[in-house]
Amino acid sequence: MADAKTDPLLEDFKSHIQHEDGMDDRMYSKYLEFARQYVQGATGGQKAQLVLMVAALLNDFRVGDADLEAGLDSLTPFFVAEVYNEGVDLDGPADQST
Hints:
By secondary structure, the protein is mostly helical. Helix content is 60%, strand content 0%. The protein is built from five helices and no strands. It has helices at residues 10-16, 25-43, 48-60, 66-74, 76-86. The longest helix is centred in the middle third of the chain and has 19 residues, at 25-43. The protein is globular and about 40 Å long. The relative contact order is 0.13.
């Protein structure tokens, strides 16, 4: 986990959102941290572009509501494509006992 000072995506993230005066980098780092966890759980990896998209949604919808849920749901095709393209097996090894 990267902190606000060393997070390699922080400056890239801030350049893609409407940066608010007075917003602390630590808050943006929290968005990136949660986005990494979300993307890891959804795809088995942490592709930077997906992390940035999720973090941007978290920034836009700071209070969890239907809009945030709809925004995250809209990213499902990207997650599916990432898993398909990377060949990540989310179900684990196939059961060979049958």
